[in-house]
Design a protein that fits this description.
The protein has about 475 residues and is of the alpha/beta class. The protein folds into two domains: about 150 residues, Leucine Dehydrogenase, chain A, domain 1 (Rossmann fold, 3-Layer(aba) Sandwich); about 230 residues, 3-Layer(aba) Sandwich (Rossmann fold), CATH 3.40.50.720. Helix content is about 45%, strand content about 15%. It has 17 helices and twelve strands. The protein has a seven-stranded mixed sheet, with helices on both faces. Strands 1-2-4-3-5 form a five-stranded mixed sheet. Strand 7 and strand 8 form a beta hairpin. The longest helix is centred in the last third of the chain and has 26 residues. It is globular, with a radius of gyration of 23 Å.
């Protein structure tokens, strides 16, 4: 079954489906939906062998209803204008959904990073940053990039260094980009934030016994079998935190194949094996999945697509055996696949919600950079003293002496504790709001799934921002 939707058309189809449940003027809905601005630029780069290559880069700012705009920067051969605009739009809805005050943006460079040396990647990143500066597509109050597919904190450090050399506002220049190394004013917990957010979201979704019963599942994540597609930053951390939540990660899929063990994997050991050998393949005791697409169709409770878009399609959707699809990647399910999976009674937890952990913690990093104060610095020692005073009072009143291990658990919140606490609260609140919206339309003629409910909530929040600006009545 052929699907002719472009990625951006797919996002707009989801938007239109949700917009029919609102009563906002058509002009306002159109303004929310369109991409406000996008820029395609090219520049030459000198390769290590002396040859010159032309590099193609993009940056799109989907919505300026609130500033700055925010979105990752990816390096991939699939990068093009449609993909960047679609991802920028998803960022707009994602930020609105979790109540993070950013407009959506996204950037990317069309390349396969494996074909370039580190020095070449540095030159490309710095020149890309220069282009963003020249075109006013970067700045603490303008547009704030972050890591995405194919990039990491290393590229963010290069962006920061390049921006600072040209920034008129040196004081707040460190807030021009997030996902930075800790040593470069990054924040504790950012690297694993998207994966951790996936698990917080799944924990909340699976906590409702009445929602799990139709799927034939019990409440909670304990002992649920999980297959994760993609073992990059998001997939690795999602798998790691799922394992720590007592779920069984029985399958891990990469582009060159996958591994399967119904008893579950120790995710950390799989990561160590990959670090030693360069691949997850050949992991001891694992069954080889030669075609990673076949791994998507294995029986499991939860399937976590954590790679790229359009992984679940009209072709493979009828054969998916998972009870829950947890969209850790952006746009992993095509519109036709979405319909097929819903008709089959499979619960899809949408990317607009589940992938929001990264931007939530990026928001915390941005705030930290602007305030120039590390979270927890002002009150950690006070909390430590209060906690230990309470412990001594309990020991004195009861005669019970806490062990050294128990005493280590009693401490004030440090930065990572506060970041994780804020992320967890954000994911729980957002899911509860989505679920409440879905329940409101449960008896409507048109079925409202979680994706549509998420878009409805995002539209409401963005529309309120526009109306407060006085642009629309």
């Amino acid at each position: 079954m052929a699907e002719s939707f472009s990625f951006f058309q797919k996002v707009n189809t989801d938007f239109d489906k949700a917009a029919q449940f609102t009563d906002y003027p058509p002009g306002l809905l159109e303004q929310i939906k369109v991409c406000n601005s996008s820029c395609h630029f090219t520049f030459p780069i000198k390769r290590d062998d002396g040859t010159i290559q032309t590099i193609h880069g993009w940056r799109a700012e989907h919505s300026h209803h609130i500033l700055p705009t925010k979105g990752g920067m990816r390096y991939s051969t699939l990068v093009n204008e449609d993909e960047i605009m679609a991802l920028a739009a998803l960022m707009t809805y994602k930020c609105a959904l979790v109540d993070v005050p950013f407009g959506g943006a996204k950037g990317g460079i069309q390349l396969d990073r494996r074909e370039y040396s580190d020095s070449e990647l540095e030159r490309i990143t710095r020149r890309y940053t220069y282009e963003l500066i020249q075109k006013n597509y970067i700045g603490p109050g303008v547009d704030v990039p972050a890591p995405d597919f194919g990039t990491s904190e290393t590229e963010m450090a290069w962006i920061l260094d390049t921006y600072i050399t040209m920034a008129p506002d040196k004081l707040n220049a460190i807030a021009c980009v997030t996902g930075k190394p800790i040593e470069q004013n990054g924040i504790q917990g950012r690297k694993g934030a998207t994966g951790r957010g996936v698990v917080y979201g799944l924990e909340e979704a699976c906590s409702y016994a009445e929602d799990m019963k139709p799927l034939g599942l019990s409440a909670g994540l304990q002992e649920k079998s999980v297959i994760v597609q993609g073992f990059g930053n998001v997939g690795y951390h999602a798998a790691k935190f799922l394992m720590e939540a007592d779920a069984r990660v029985i399958g891990i899929l990469e582009r060159n194949g996958g591994i399967y063990n119904p008893q579950g994997f120790d995710v950390e050991k799989v990561a160590e094996h990959r670090a030693e050998t360069g691949s997850i393949l050949g992991y001891p005791g694992a069954e080889l999945i030669e075609n990673p697409n076949d791994g998507l169709e294995l029986e499991c409770d939860i399937l976590v697509p954590a790679a790229l878009e359009n992984q679940l399609t009209a072709e493979n959707a009828p054969r998916i055996k998972a009870s829950i699809i947890a969209e850790a990647a952006n746009g992993p399910t095509t519109p036709t696949a979405d319909e097929i999976l819903h008709k089959r009674g499979i619960l899809i937890i949408p990317d607009t919600f589940l992938n929001a952990g990264g931007v939530t913690v990026s928001y915390f990093e941005w705030l930290r950079n602007l305030s120039h104060v590390r979270f927890g610095r002002l009150d950690k020692r006070f909390e430590d003293s209060a906690q230990h005073a309470m412990r001594r009072a309990v020991e004195k009143a009861t005669g019970y002496n806490f062990s050294e291990e128990e005493r280590e658990l009693i401490h004030g919140a440090d930065e990572e504790d506060l970041v994780n606490s804020g992320l967890q609260d954000t994911m729980i609140t957002a899911y509860q709001e989505i679920r409440e919206t879905r329940m409101q339309y449960r008896n409507s003629k048109n079925h409202v799934d979680y994706r549509t409910a998420a878009f409805i909530n995002a539209i409401h929040r963005i529309a309120q921002s526009y109306m407060q600006l006085g642009i629309f009545p």
